[in-house]
Amino acid sequence: MSAPLPHVEIIGRQSSHYTRVARMLALELGVEVPLAPIFDLMSTDPGTYAGNPALKLPSLRVGDEMVWGSQNACRQLARLAVGGEERVYWPENAHGSLLMNAHEIVAHAMSAQVEVVFHEVVSKRPPDATSRKRRESLINCLGWLDTHLDEIHAQLPHDRIALLDLMLFCLLEHLPFRNPIDLSGMPRLTTFVTSFGARASAQATPYRFDAPPPEAANP
Length: 219
Ligand SMILES: N[C@@H](CCC(=O)N[C@@H](CS)C(=O)NCC(=O)O)C(=O)O
Known about the structure:
Blueprint (H helix, E strand, L loop, with lengths): L7 E5 L4 H12 L6 E3 L21 E4 L2 E4 L1 H11 L3 H4 E2 L7 H26 L6 H27 L5 E2 H16 L8 H10 L3 H4 L10 H4 L2
Parallel strand pairs: 1-2, 5-6
Antiparallel strand pairs: 1-3, 3-4
């Protein structure tokens, strides 16, 4: 592990699957980056989200530069590591339809997970036609990924860190944490999450809620 880099931080949440993708990639690449936690997920102030007008997290600060979104954060993190960009298999490296579709489906499933959790867990709203469709689409995507996972992994290069694997792992472990879905009928996904979860980057980034400092919790 390299020494901490000055002026570099991930702004996000330990409970966020998008934040975890960036944190795990940093660890995989040997770049030590602290997390600056966002405590109020319901804030409507872009300042809470490192200036992101979309009111989304995570962001990555490198010196005076800020990038918004997990993919941009991953790109910048890779640039901080020696040969980092070449060590990662990026979505745009996928040329065949299977890997192209796999990236599309994992990205969609991560976003559907946010919408389902926001609707059902954070806002505690009863299911409606939109949320039911969102949940169905999430489950369909998981089923598709399970069916094709062996073939996907056969096509991914084994000497690079696949962003696809990081994203899929962070999504799958986020399910029991925020939105339990029965994966017992999806053996390839359950095998994958168990084996990938043994990596040091996964062990170092378990999902948990960031506790606000006492003065912020009780102003
Ligand atoms: N495209 C963004 C999506 C980020 C995202 O949806 N993050 C969630 C947290 S895991 C979030 O900001 N949720 C708050 C909200 O949707 O209002 C990325 O890749 O970082």
